[in-house]
Amino acid sequence: MPADKTSRRLVKKVERMVLADLQAPLNIPTLSRTLGVSDRYLRNVFQSVHGLSTLKYLRLLKLSRARRALMSARSPTVTVTNVAKRHGFREMGRFSVEYREMFGESPSVTLRQAIRELSAGSALMDSMLKL
Fold first, then answer.
1. Single pTM value for the model
2. d(CA 9, CA 92)
3. How many angstroms separate the CA atoms of 119 and 123, rounded?
4. Distance (Å, rounded) from C-alpha 28 to C-alpha 60?
5. Domain ranges across the chain
6. Each residue of 20-45: pLDDT tens digit?
7. Can you give the pLDDT at residue 128?
8. How far, in Å, CA of 47 to CA of 73, rounded?
9. Tens of pLDDT along 56-79?
10. How big is the CA angle at 97 (ends 89 and 95), to the nearest 5 degrees?
11. What homologous superfamily does CATH list for 5-129?
């Protein structure tokens, strides 16, 4: 069954709620109660809109935001652990496994690459300023 406008609106509302507090644990019963819908209805809506369970989709959403944060790291003091915790992941091993499954590399590789690019850009800027 294709997703209707109401279903898509509900999914967007859930996404906004989750993104507004990334550190909060994903708790489907609490989300359902807050929205005034049943767990089953929420599950069916996510299945029709995204073809995934509510929990799976929201974990992927948080993983994507964590990746964005790792890729945009602007300081060598940024750590995978801090980024993961800011995005609501408490188990670092599980975070790393899910991250690798989704993006094909470990979160530390993503972070190292971002820091390397930052350093390269900084070195380029320094050399340009000397001209």
1. 0.83
2. 32
3. 6
4. 15
5. 5-129
6. 999 998 999 999 999 999 999 999 99
7. 46
8. 33
9. 999 999 999 999 999 998 888 899
10. 5
11. Homeodomain-like (1.10.10.60)
